[in-house]
């Protein structure tokens, strides 16, 4: 088996160790004898449907407003249409914070600039500048019933119902009526500090505010993504010794916000 990971904008969108997610996906695949090919997609990389047809999993990290301003036009014009086809065609993807925001309709930055998004996720995000405090701190959230009830997740889940992480964003994200959240906030702010939702699920793609990097302390979600990406049931993924990681996850649930 082989997994092709496409890491978009690795130089621009990589806050709080987000690139660790790619390392975790690679390492957990490697330990199962799954060959890993990593494609690094920068603004000057040409993307087309031929390239996307080979991709099993897309990853994009977070970035400050300044980085988002540097790449959003390239996303909109050059990569967005192919990403839209990929995601709407059931492709697997993970999008953290700044990139999660840019998959929506628009992101209104702290200085009021509107960055048009790729319009793939039915959501929008606004930063209220000085008028509202940033959402910063440790986070715990309960995964949505859609994921907990998915047989693939049940097959790979040796840990529990929660995601843990760390968030640091000024933008507040509001989901469209049909878009399902990834999780319910137990500790932290999540999408907007108002409605207890965290992240979003659209087909096989996931957006979240959780850095950390997310997958380092959430190996069940990492394996879920690998199984989804490879279109396997998850039972084929050999169990790994995650004792220490499980301890880190459990300890994280007790951290102060
Ligand atoms: N610039 C965005 C915000 O502050 C995203 C930050 C991030 O990716 N952590 O809302």
TrEMBL record:
EC number annotated for this UniProt entry: 6.3.5.13, 3.5.1.2
Alphabetical list of CDD domains matching this protein: GATase1_CobQ
Top-rank lineage group of the source organism: Bacteria
Residue ranges of domain CobB/CobQ-like glutamine amidotransferase in the record: 6-218
An individual GO BP term: regulation of cell shape
Pfam families according to UniProt: GATase_3
Pathway(s) per entry: Cell wall biogenesis; peptidoglycan biosynthesis
Transmembrane segments: none
Name of protein: Lipid II isoglutaminyl synthase (glutamine-hydrolyzing) subunit GatD
InterPro entries with a match to the protein in the record: Class_I_gatase-like, CobQ_GATase1, GATase_3, Lipid_II_synth_GatD
Molecular-function GO terms, alphabetical: carbon-nitrogen ligase activity on lipid II; glutaminase activity; transferase activity
Keywords: Cell shape, Cell wall biogenesis/degradation, Glutamine amidotransferase, Hydrolase, Ligase, Peptidoglycan synthesis, Transferase
Keyword DNA repair: no
Coiled-coil blocks: none
């Amino acid at each position: 088996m082989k997994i092709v990971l496409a890491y978009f904008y690795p130089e621009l969108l990589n806050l709080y160790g987000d690139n660790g997610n790619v390392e975790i996906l690679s390492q957990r695949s490697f330990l199962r004898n799954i060959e890993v090919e990593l494609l690094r997609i920068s603004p000057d990389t040409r993307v087309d449907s031929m390239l996307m047809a080979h991709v099993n999993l897309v990853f994009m990290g977070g970035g400050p407003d300044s980085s988002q301003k540097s790449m959003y036009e390239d996303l909109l014009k050059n990569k967005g249409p192919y990403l839209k086809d990929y995601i709407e065609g059931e492709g697997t993807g993970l999008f953290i914070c700044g990139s999660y925001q840019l998959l929506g309709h628009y992101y209104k930055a702290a200085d009021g600039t509107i960055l048009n998004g790729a319009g793939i996720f039915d959501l929008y995000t606004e930063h209220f500048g000085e008028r509202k405090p940033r959402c910063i701190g440790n986070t715990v959230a309960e995964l949505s019933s859609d994921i907990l009830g998915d047989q693939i997740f049940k097959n790979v889940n040796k840990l529990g119902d929660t995601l843990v992480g760390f968030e640091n964003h000024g933008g507040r994200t509001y989901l469209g009526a049909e878009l399902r959240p990834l999780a319910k906030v137990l500790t932290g702010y999540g999408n907007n500090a108002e409605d207890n939702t965290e992240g979003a699920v659209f087909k096989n793609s996931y957006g979240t505010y959780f850095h950390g990097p997310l997958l380092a302390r959430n190996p069940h979600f990492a394996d879920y993504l690998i199984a989804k990406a490879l279109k396997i049931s998850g039972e084929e993924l050999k169990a790994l010794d995650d004792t220490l990681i499980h301890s880190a996850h459990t300890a994280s649930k007790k951290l102060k916000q």
